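Internal QA ticket QA-208
Title: Verify multi-chain structure generation after dependency bump
Assignee: T.L.

Test input:
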Amino acid sequence: MKRYLLYSAPLALLWCFVHGDVTILNFLFGLVLGPFVIKPFKPLYKFGQEVSFKDAISRIPKEIKYFVMLIIEIIKACIVVGKIVIQPKIDIKPGIIAVPIDTKTHAGITAIANTITLTPGTLTLDVSDDESVLYVHCIDASDPDGVRESIKHDLEKYILEAFE
Amino acid sequence: MNSLLLNLALLFMVFAMIPCVYRVIKGPTVPDRVIAVDAMTTVIVVMLGVYSFVQGSVFFMDVALVLSIISFVGTVTISKYLDEGVVL
Amino acid sequence: MTSLLDHIPILLIAIPILMAAVMIFLRSIPALQKVLNVFVTFCMLVLSVVLLEQVWTNGIIVYEVGEWGKYGIVLVADLLSAGMVLLTLFVSFLSLVYSLEYIEERSLSSSYHSLFNLLMAGLTGSFLTGDIFNLFVFFEILLLSSCALVVANEKGGVTKSSDKMEATFKYLVLSMLGSIVMLIAIASLYATVGTVNMADISVKVSAMSASGTLPWHIYAVALLFIVVFGNKAALFPLHYWLPDVHPTAPSPISAMLSGVLIKVGVYGMFRVFFLMFTDTLYMFKPIIIILSLATIIIGAVSAVGQTDVKRLLAYSSVGQIGYVFLGLGMGSVYTIAASLVYLVNHAFAKGMLFLTSGAIIHHAHTRDMDKMGGMIKSSPVMGTMFLIGAMSIAGFPPMGGFIGKFLLFDAGINEGFYIPIAIALIFAVFTMFYMFRAWMKMFWGESRDTKKYGEYSSHALSPLLTVPIIILALGVLVFGVYAEPLIALAQATAAQIVDPQPYIDAVLTRVVR
Amino acid sequence: MTTLITKTITKICVPLVILFSISLLLAGHNNPGGGFIGGVMFASIIGLLYVVFGLDNIKEFFNPDWAKWFAFGLLLSCITAFGALFVGHNFFRSAVEFVHLPFIGEIELVSAGLFDVGVYFVVIGSLLYIFKNVGDDK
Amino acid sequence: MNNTLLSFTIAMLFGFGTFLILRRDIIKVVIGLGVLSHAVNMLIVSAGVFKGTKVPIIVGSSGEHGAADASGTVFNDVLADGVLAPVVSAGTHIEYVDPLVQALVLTAIVISLATTAFILILAYRIHEEYGTTDLRELRRLWG
Amino acid sequence: MDPFNVITLAIFLPFIFAGLIPAAEKILKHYVGWLAAAVALASFLLIATVLPHVIHDGPISGAVPWLPSVGLDFGLYIDGLGILIAFLASGIGVIIMSYSNGYMSHKEDLPRYYMWLLLFMGSMVGMVFSANTILLFIFWELTSVTSYMLIGYWRDKPESIYGATKSLIVTAAGGLVMLAGFLFLHSITGTFDIPTILQNEALIQTVKDHDLFLITLVLIFIGAAAKSAQGPFYIWLPNAMEAPTPVSAFLHSATMVKAGIYLVGRMHPIFSGTDAWLILVAGTGMITMVMAGFMAFRQTDIKGILAYSTISQLAYIITMYGYTTYQHPGIGVAAATFHIVNHGTFKACLFLVAGIIAHEAATRDIRKMGGLWREMPITFIIAVIGALSMAGIPPLNGFLSKEMFYESSVEMGAALGSPYTILIPVIAIMGGVFTFAYSIKLISGIFLGKRPKDGLPKHIHDPCATMLVPAAFLAFLVVLFGVVPSIPVHNIVEPTASGILLEPVHLHVKLWHGVTTPLIMTIVTFILGILVYSKYDALAAWQDRFNARHPRISVNYHYDAAVDNAKTWGHKISSVTQPGTIKTYINAVLILIVVLVCIPVILLGANIIPQTLNFDIAPYEALLMLLMVVAGIAIVALPGYLPAIIALSALGYMVGLLFIYLKAPDLALTQVLVETLSTIIFFLAIAKIPQKFKEKIPTTTLVRDVIISVAIASTVFIMLINATQGIVSPFESLSHYFIENSLTLAGGHNIVNVIIVDFRGYDTLGEISVLCLAALGVYNLIHSRSEEK
Amino acid sequence: MSSIDIVLELLSNIVLIIGLVFVFLGMLGLLRLPDVYNRMHATTKIGTVGAFGVMLSILLKVGFSPMGVKALTVGLFLLLTAPIAAHMIGRAAHRHGVELCKESIIDEYGKSYK
Ligand code: NA
Ligand code: NA
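Actual output:
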């Protein structure tokens, strides 16, 4: 039940969003609709695990922090790649770098992978089978260790806070 | 001024589609073409957004919404096919 | 609740659609499926009789779906459409009964019933609709349902599934071209007159023609409908799919395809040209006559060269549909009536022949006539039935086919179409030749080499197979011996076709909410 | 197999898109959308689920008989259209009813909406039936 | 919608589609049919008869309101007393684009999706039976 | 009883009993033949009861409605001609069916035999009494079919099948041609009813003066000639001898072949007295008479002789019916009619004898026989009577009609004047000479000379009474009619001739007229006949040489070539027209489209470029369209599946964008969704279809395809720019209604959606049915191979 | 028009222009960058971010009206899904043998799955 509510709340919000009309009524309707939509796919969501609302709510500030960081990173990096693109002669040293990660949960790995992708200059190609290494394509791979370092410290830290 | 800006924006975006079409034709690899189409849908989403605002009509935004979701479905399917040679 | 009888036109279309859905829910209870489907189809047959009777006594019936008048979609039951519906349901009912034994069990229960129902809906819907775009929709139903049914599994599996696939592909591609042409025509028409209601189009095209403002492209649009309906009816040079598809389909479906489905094309020509484009008829008729003669020749000559019994029957359908089109192309009340009589007789005879061929295939385990012979001893009933059908197709009295040929030739000569009738006559001899040759190949002569081709099946034919055949055979005989009701109906129908005003009045003079 | 990253995002998307599809279905009469569009959305996200997780894996816990879905849709559409016959009208005669509900306000009940729901189910059922049949065919 | 460039584009697509359905490869033919169906859909939309520029969705929160600002057209096609009035005398300016063609195209699109799905699976089965996608070899049925 | 009812009963009695035969056989076993004979007798007697009425009051008509909508009744016209042939059919029917009881083995499929015999007899009777051409045609074709069934009675024998096929093709095709003639007659006279025409002189004159007279006559005569084995259509009759001998006797000498004669007699009043009639009918008759006589003479099979003899004898009758001039329309009618009777008797008699011989001697080859008169004296006597009558020896009936034939030939020659005064009698004599020669050959070959050492059964004797009595009875008639000709002449020949000539006829037929020209001709005939008979070997050698040198002179050669090669040719043609390559088929459709659009352009001289071309378009839309064209080129040009499909998908998204510009959000939504889905389905399919094949397009193909594509594109372009010139004033679109009422009546703001779920929701019902169909169809496709494995 | 509105208007126009430029640059990158991996950098980030910017600008223009909310949703969806698409294609490309461009200096992925 708790699970349902936990999943339904964001869904209800999204229901309002796709409806284009954020009202209490719409939200409640979405809340009612949510469990029915999730129910058939229960096994996808590890319903056995215990959850706590407190935990979920307590993470919200950290999540916001993460997003802010993300946006800044993105804008910074966009400019970098934009510059490369409009150079008269493109001079890059790309390459694929293996980046070990500590994150364990799927949500966390996904978040970090997506974050890497969204920040220009790096792009997650794959995650190793044991879920411990990300393979990242860098538009500038001249310093592989630097890249590994920056991902480890700048990104993963926030993600661990926000999602685990 | 505003409307001129937005009309220019539309024209600009159609220009942005040219590289996509170019990549679809030129390739050279299939993944190139796939990302070209994927990029094209992004451009179309942008155009839909702008157009929606130009026309003052929310209806086109619905299309943008659908397209932003659905194009991903297509791309993932093609990628799986490219990777594994099967779809289902 | 109003009387059910007021809603017959829509019932004839919507009930099969409903049944298609119900049949899927009943997949696990095949027996109930069979009983229910046969029962409901029979009820529809009865309803179609009632509909024809109503139209006969009360004139044209217009049914407004959704009560939107010409703004929505109207169903129009005039003598032509009601008659075609009756014919459809008669052949369908018998084919359905036949299928219960003929189609493989699993295929039957899982999809066949639904597909068959949708095929029926497609047919009745095409005949009854008064809306040109709706006709397109129902054509698509016809196309896909027939394609899906062609690949249905039959018991015994004499036809290779590769053949089915190939035939279906050709059919589908050519039909899709036809659909595209139809859409072009409908769109152009709409852009010019602003409506898709056939009666409305008719009024507007006539008005333009009367005031001299009929644009030339309306003629082109009209002629494009030849492609659309010619494709359905296998008019030369749009016939290519037919000799591939009709033989490879399971026999009851062949009967449906040859018996009624290709008639949809003929129906469409009547509807479109004699209702909507009466002012283009002078351009249309010679084209149709030329194409129909080509169809007759191609069909007859090719049929002579066949050794596969079903392929022969299929080519024969091509040739015979040419005769129907000949009557249509000559375009007077009498020739149209003749063409209609011909059409009905062909439906009965060819439907029956295809059903019989199914039984023959069950008996001989092959479609190749060279591998048959002397079967009159082992299968006298099928021999007799095939003979009756062959005689009818060949135009021998006292079978219905004779009445059709006689009326057609008489009408043609009356109208002064000497050369077309001469050609038609010459190829009628071909028809006679190949039908009887086929009969003799299968039923006369020495029994086949059993070492090479195996014994004939010793199973007694199920009554589910024989009874429909015999009923159709009786129909063939009755239409030959006592054709008066059919001819009278055909003449009344033809008169109605040639004079579209009552149709237009019926559709357009009504209060729209 | 696809990666866990894709799987995770797909998981997130599934209920979301289903909700969206319902929204499109309900909005249809007054906004762009409707049964077909909603149905295709639904079908494509389930299709994505099949693609990303593998058909067999999904079938273990989520295996509806899609044929029944489209049959239900067809039945529903047909019955809706037939409904008018029972109140003395022609087939497909639509009914529009404005119902006033407490808290929620005016709600517009349109029989055509029910028909659209039928369309929705047909689209979902038929498309996924095709996917499943082709996917099962090895 | 009288627009020569649009017509030209549609015609070009018809040409491309036609060229493709004349190819020997079964998938090419199917692709050609896809192009043709795009072209024909655009053709139908371009057959719309109104010169309006508004999306055919009546904007307004409630029923009564929406109807009033619908078009301002006088709807005049009353066919009463057995008198046929085949033409309407509406004629006033319509702000919307033609909704009917859009509805027709919607139907056409869905149908072409269904057909495409069927023909593709058919192509797969043909490949399975014949081991090739060359249509020249797809001629076991001839004569 | 009313004569109409009597005749109706006489017609349908055999039909009814034919249906009952299989049931009766269960009870009567092999005696079922006697039942059939009794039915025939009943019919005969029924017809006989009408004869006095006809003699007394002239022709009788009657009708019941049958197909009133096309002006057709079930109408009977009972006159002498009809009764004559009906007598032959039923009377000889009685004899044949009795005879068959002895001839047919009990192991044979008797019900089928008697059923078809009765059906034939009924059809024959029905045909001769039919008052309208269509009824006549129906019964006519029924005789063809029944004859076909009887010829093919032993249906596993290739010869039977060959003979049956030939007879059906020739006679039924001839029948169809005749039908065309009847239809022409209908279009000239406006009626199908024969008595209506016969009783209206003005109408007959109209026919004779009509432009279509000649074609009508030719068509009808072809039918008659085919049935009576005249002219080139004789070919089927010799092969029809594969039938059981009683059948040959009945159908192929006495009755069915008389149908053509009957038709000539029936049409005589309408068409005779014209040059065309004379040339066509008498000309065909004379040529056939001589040629068939000669061929009969060359045969060695008894039935072969009799078959060709039948052709020749029928040609006598045809010739005589052909003897007309404007002044004398009916020179040979009486003689011809009398010969019908006589030929019916002596030829049937000879056939029965042939049956007896074949039955007893187990062969029909006269070269293997000889001297049989000792062993079967009664048969010998009967045979001699029949043969001598055929040869025209007094005092038998054949002599009488032969005399009349010569007489009318002389008269005809005289009427035409030189050189025909001599020519026609000479040809008549030639016919007689061969007749005489083969008649003698027949008797001497079988009964005279020495019995061969081997090849014949040990004990040959006269057959049982069942077989002998019918033959003897016919022989008796031959003698009776010869000695007392007034019996047939007054009772049947005169009424018949009156019926044909439409005026009372009185004949004075006697054995001895004194020494007249015909008698001299007869004597010449006998002398020449003996001469020819003695020169058999020389003649045979000459003919064999001739035939070897000119194989194409034989009609059979052409028939066999046509039928044997029909399948090959049909298959060759169908292989060309139906080559199996779908591209050919598509091309045909495309070319037809272009042609059909061009036709009105040419016929109307239309201006294909309209006045207003609108190039007003926002730049971004123009650019988008350009991109769409480029994407289209990509789809065409990219050889791989994946690139082409991806390009198609790009095009699809652009189409969606274009829909946006066209203010169609619903469409755009649907378009992008469908595009994605179809791309997925494309990949679903090609995941199982590896691209092994890459097409290399030869230049010629490329040029051709490009031309077709350009043609289609131009066609569409021209159609479209014309069609989009705007709605023709003052019409308005249905859409007004939708816009106006979408909210008020259907409660929806989205007009497009309201149209698809409400105004035109019925379309959508169809559309979702199509979706269900696709799903079920895919199921069927996938599961269509389960059965095989 | 209040000053906030003016600021918002200005801000939104700036964001719009930035977004459009980004999208355009992304597409330019698609055109110019040497291999599929580098091109993906351009499209899936600059493109996506640019698109997000445009949507954001619309939100700023219209506020939390249905259009604005939907625009925001569109932006979020793009951010959520675009990386996955890139990830899937890139992975497939690499595993399917699409070579890195010649300028590339390191490939630590290649050995992991072969
Ligand atoms: Na001898
Ligand atoms: Na994307």
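Spot checks passed. Residues 31 and 49 of chain B are 27 Å apart (CA to CA).
Status: verified.
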